[in-house]
Structures are given as C-alpha cells and as structure tokens.
C-alpha cells in the first residue's frame, strides 16, 4: 500500500467540504479558492477545481455571478446557495462525528 495514495484519497474526500467552508465565509474567484487551499497545504490545480465547482453548481449548492475586473475580462465569483448552506451544515455535523470517532480511537 502506498502512503501517498492514501493521503491523496483523504484530501480528495475533504476537498468539497473545504471549498464550501471557504465560500461560506465570502464569495470567491476560482484562483482565490486555489490560493487559499494552497495556503492551507491542500494543493489543488485548476483541472481538479473547475469540474468540482461545476458539479456543485449543477447540484444547486453553488451559484456564481460575473464581476467586472480592472485587469482583463469579468471574473466568475462563486457563492453558496441556500441549499449549499444547508448541505454545508450536514457536512459539518458529519465532520465533527468523524473527527470525534478518530480521536476516540487514537486516544484509547
């Protein structure tokens, strides 16, 4: 078994949750999302992010609006929808339960 492979799978499982947490705080442009994830050591490339954003939008968890840019074409800013906020609440509960379970097992 490859440790890097397992770490990669764990990160993929958390990526959607982390993106939604970022967008809960404020609407964001895709490159801003990538930068914040990199700062948190959750490295993501555009080829990973854009399909995920599209899927979340198609599931009505995200919406976007075009905002004029002073440097080039308008930018697409993503934000959570009402349904996205509710879904994030469910993910937060699941994360807390999972975290408590892992901590319980680790500290036994």
From TrEMBL:
Signal peptide: none
Cross-referenced Pfam families: PadR
Residue ranges of every copy of the Transcription regulator PadR N-terminal domain listed in the record: 19-89
InterPro entries (UniProt xref): Metal_resp_DNA-bind_regulator, Tscrpt_reg_PadR_N, WH-like_DNA-bd_sf, WH_DNA-bd_sf
SUPFAM superfamilies for the chain: Winged helix' DNA-binding domain
Domain of life (superkingdom): Bacteria
Protein name per the record: Transcriptional regulator, PadR family
